[in-house]
């Protein structure tokens, strides 16, 4: 059986992404959570991950690390789930915005870490963080404008791009960032996704905590 090795559900945005992808693929999988910032964390992750990072997906002796690589692997394993848009142009743009999320938005990621247990956290975003938020709003507005007649997700039907941006939607909720218009509707769509709601319920039940993230604001 597939096994997904994750970090704390409350904080680990990189873990949430492939978890959503596996759920969308309707593949059965086991989950193992390794809480971060604990005495045994480094050793536990080193045992399963060559990059010393999670998430890692195990499939019959194969280990795939890195959220986006896992998403691509799952998309190939479950082609019938159409985890990327069906048309080539849509796939290209969905991959471009997913790669942009995966590689960038450093200020936003640092200043507004995912923390599902918190809401209305007052922060004063730096200019770099504000620029990140503006670019995300631009992506959301542009893609929703182009695909509004095809469904509520970024490219109409749910795709890996939506998994990439779901943690961002939670950050906006936690830190009180309101985008307005179609971009905000899309944020609400991501936050009301039933798979995300299940992840969130599990996150709220976790007893582990990471002080440096909880101290923000
Ligand atoms: N680029 C990687 C980033 C993974 C990453 O940074 N994972 C964090 C948890 S969210 C981690 O494993 N940290 C190890 C540690 O803090 O000891 C991906 O997309 O999977």
The CATH topology name of the largest domain reads Glutathione S-transferase Yfyf (Class Pi), Chain A, domain 2
Helices and strands, in order, run as: EHEHEEHHHHHHHH
Sheet having the most strands: 4 strands, mixed
Low-confidence blocks of residues: none
- Spatial separation of the terminal alpha carbons: 41 Å
Number of domains: 2
Q: Using only CA atoms, what is the Rg?
A: 17 Å
Question: Strand pairing plus helix content: what structural class?
Answer: alpha+beta
Q: What small molecules accompany the polymer chains?
A: glutathione
For the secondary structure, the number of strands is 4
> What is the 3D shape?
globular
Helix content: 40-55%
Kindly estimate the percentage of residues that lie in beta strands according to DSSP: 5-15%
Labels describing this entry:
217 residues; alpha+beta; Glutaredoxin; Glutathione S-transferase Yfyf (Class Pi), Chain A, domain 2; 2 domains; 4-stranded mixed β-sheet; 10 helices; 4 strands; 54% helix; globular; binds glutathione
3D architecture notes:
By secondary structure, the chain is an alpha+beta fold. It has two domains: 2-81, Glutaredoxin (3-Layer(aba) Sandwich); 88-198, Glutathione S-transferase Yfyf (Class Pi), Chain A, domain 2 (Up-down Bundle). It is 54% helix and 8% strand. A four-stranded mixed sheet has the order 2-1-3-4, with helices on one face. The longest helix is centred in the middle third of the chain and has 21 residues, at 127-147. The structure holds glutathione.
